[in-house]
Amino acid sequence: MPSRRRTLLKVIILGDSGVGKTSLMNQYVNKKFSNQYKATIGADFLTKEVQFEDRLFTLQIWDTAGQERFQSLGVAFYRGADCCVLVYDVNSMKSFDNLNNWKEEFLIQASPNDPENFPFVVIGNKIDVDGGNSRVVSEKKARAWCASKGDIPYYETSAKEGINVEEAFQCIARDALKSGEEEEIYLPDTIDVGSSSQPRSSGCEC
Question: How far from chain centre, in Å, is Cα 166?
C-alpha cells in the first residue's frame, strides 16, 4: 500500500473548565466557533497538517477535560506530548491562578525527559468579552508570570473572533517541533487524517 512520511507532533491543551480550550482547537483546525457550551468528557483530539521548511507535520491536538474529576484520566494522554498549552480566561482570576497547578500536574503526569526545558505556551483567551471591559487579569500580570516560569511564550486570543489563534498555534507547532521528541508515522494515502478526528462532543467549550 502506498504511504507518505509524516511527523506526528502531540500537543496537550490544559486549563480550567470553560476557559475555551475546545473553542480554540476548533477555531484553529476547522475555523468554526459555536456559542453552545458542552463540557469535554475525558479527552478529544483534532489533527491538522502543518508545513515547515518543506516538511509535512501532523499536529495532534488533545483537549482534556478541565473538571477535576477527570484529571486522573490524564496520564495516558499526557505521555509523549511535545508541547503543553496552558489556557486561562482573562475575565477569570481563578483560571489564571490555576495555571501553575496545571503546569505542575502536566510535569508530574507526562514525566518529560527534560522538565526544565519542556516547551509550554500560555494563552489568555476571551479578550473579546464585553469589549474587554470585564477582564480582571492584565496582560502585564500574565507576561510577568510567564517570564518568571522561564520566559514562556504568551498570546492573548479570542476563539470567538479568531483573534491571534493562528499565530498562537504556529508558535505551539514550532515549539513542539523543537522539543525533539517527534515520532515518525506512516499513513496510507487513502486516509484523510482530518476526517476521523472530529471531537466526540457535539458542542464546544466557549
Answer: 12
Each residue's pLDDT tens digit in the chain (206 positions)? 444 455 889 999 999 989 999 899 999 998 887 766 555 555 677 889 888 777 888 999 988 765 554 455 557 778 889 999 999 999 999 999 999 999 998 999 899 999 999 999 999 999 999 999 999 999 999 999 999 999 999 999 999 999 999 999 999 999 988 875 444 444 444 444 443 444 433 333 43
Q: What is the pTM of this model?
A: 0.79
151 burial (CB, 10 Å; 0-12 / 13-18 / 19+) is exposed
Which domains occur in the chain, in start order? 10-31+49-188 (3.40.50.300)
Give every CB contact of residue 63 below 8 A, 6+ residues apart in sequence: 13, 21, 22, 25, 40, 43, 44, 45, 46, 199, 205
